[in-house]
## 1
Amino acid sequence: MKLAFIPSTFLPWVGGAEIQSHNTANKMVELGESVDIFLLDKVQINNKKYNIRVLNKTLINFVFLLKYYFGIDFSILLKFYFKKICEKYKYDAWHFHSVNFKTLLYIKILKNLNQKIFITFQGADIQKDQEIKYGYRFDKKYEKLLKKTILLVDGIFAISENIIQELIFFSYPKSKIFKIPNSIEIKKIKNTLKKTNQNKKLKIITVARFYEKKKGLDLIEKIAKIFLDNNFDFEWTLAGRNSEFLLKSSFISKNRNFFNLQKEINNDDEIYFPHSKLISLYKQHDVYVNLARIESFGITIIEAIASGLPVVSFNTKGANEIVINNQNGFLINQYNPFEIANYLMYKFNTLSKIDISKDKKIMNYDLEINTKLTIKAYKTKDV
């Protein structure tokens, strides 16, 4: 098959959506398919098997600005532009990996050109959380365009059950929804040895960019205070973009010896994310702690489980579809720092005795298996 991928954002910016686009494209090429990724800017990606094609950024931005700010529709210009692309490359399917206002404009045009279109929503593009004001849909212009556009799409890949619930809100046909979660290259992670912690201190790891409210990083200080008040020995690693922002807390700065702040571990020399350096970092710890208030999926959770770590998390969207109590982790029902701190101090020992590496359900998130399912969905005739 000849496939066109359109991510809303892409590498070198590292996030779950960007990594999924890259990993899936590489795996599809490995499985014999042809993949072109269309971007607005030229980027140098050393570890790709797919092709990168650069769109006419000036034209697209011109049409976008007129439509978004003035309500003037010049999409006819994009129709002529995309018609040439379609005639030249003759793609079997276009796959949008996350969407934004700009990329939504492409969809109606491509449908008018009789193209087959799929979307994978990755969270902010479809979720709407009132508590922390998370999601593009708080932009009424975006939400209005999404409502108009979504029903034109031939199929949608839902990475989690909570994405399916959002699709139901838009009255999208269930028959066109394919539940395929975000995935990782399991064998790559399994092939890295886990280091045994000989210390009595609990070694905690959280992998997240510094998005304080969404990722729940504001709770780290509160949980750590409870640990120290109870003379509980621990070391907490936060790995990710802008992790050093945690030091803005005077408490954490004062107790710096309990924290290990790691910069974002990028990947420009290995075909699949996560990089082996990040896998090794996971495997130096005892437990993965997820504090996020909302996730569409939670890719770092499955990376941690594949690395043999139990996951302790609040019972929030994203985590609650992956973590199974006393099997690969534990869910804390009340979003409260005391609850999770008490569990880690007094109950984690029981969970730590379970061999997480034997959890066969992790294969539900295997990249090769799910890429094959995605290819099968592209070929479905009645969508």
## 2
Amino acid sequence: MPNTEPDRDGTTDWIKCFHPSPAAAVRLVCFPHAGGSAGTYLKFSARLRHEVEVLAVQYPGRQDRSAEPPVHDLHALADRATEAVVAHGTGPCVLFGHSMGAVVAYEVAARLTARGAGPLGVVVSGSPAPSAPRERTIHHLGDAALMAEIGRLSGTDPRVLAHEDLMRLTLPALRGDYTALETYVHPRGQRLACPVRVVVGDRDPLVTPEAAGSWAEHTAGSCDVRVLPGGHFYLQEQQDELAALTLAWIDTLRTTPTR
């Protein structure tokens, strides 16, 4: 059974804490993109380590969890991730998710809110709104076509794409994640109560800044959109700017009275 109780360094099977900061006033829980891993947020964590404690979620089926099957249902993934976040401890938190991770973060936020432990806010990056129409065929592609799609979005290290053995290890998790995302159905009428910040790249082929504004329909709180230079994986080149934006927003959330 996966370990959900944090070790002394704050790590579990589900939660990786690269830079423990138990005195931090806020935890930032980060959810990776399809095919991604907790390690996606290693450098991001290093930039934020003195201000917040970053907890990076590790989905089953990759890296140290490669022996576990990927989760093919996004609601089930959110259920299990929520349990891991709750088991890690209470206290103010902000959720951050990129691409598929944005939808997982949104669903986890809804579950935490239902428990009376909703986040201060949610940062959703590089993702259409949860109810927006989505591509439904990528998870059915053959291996070569799936690899080509990932290469088009530039989200995977080219060395991995060129390494047949590494791709063979990566593809099951990647296909499982796309299955979860493409079969996801947004619960009718579901809305968050907290503020939402949307961040997109100005050349993202999957979501335009205008379309990103539709996230406002999914929260009763405030919603704003920030645009940074880059494509779908703009955050690989804009880590400093993204870290600054995120920290400034967290400071605002902490100092804004709740109703």
